Here is the input.
Amino acid sequence: MMERTTIIQKCGRLRSCLALVVFSCLAGCGGSAMEADVLQPRVLMATFPQQLALARTHWVAKGLHSYKFTVQVRCFCLEENTRPVTITVREGITDAPMRLSAFATIERVFETLEAANTSKANVLEVNFTADGWPSTSSVDPRADTSDDEYNLTISEVRPL
Here is the structure.
């Protein structure tokens, strides 16, 4: 009887220690409530929905309805389609070429990245700026499809 009690006590202590270790790891990884409102510069799929919402909040707070930005898509496509293009947005109206319609405004970029996440893209990595716009993105929509990956770079965002 004494032996069984000792084993149960040891198991109980082991469970307590294990629970403490797991809790400590989770607390350390999760961060504090204040950190939840910090826009992370590099975002992977696990935290993407929260970080996208936060990025949009930062972007909307800028209040830019008329702005210019440069977009470059790198993909397995014609070289002429991978050149940087400067896009002008005036009160939501864009002059983007049709081939860049998914990236014609910063809001459309958010929507395109959100759709990639919703459709469970194989790879989705995004770097956000402090102002909320996605500066670089890597997307591989499907693991079983070759040459569907693309990288997106957005730069030189400036008000008009």
Remarks:
- DSSP finds three helices and seven strands in the chain.
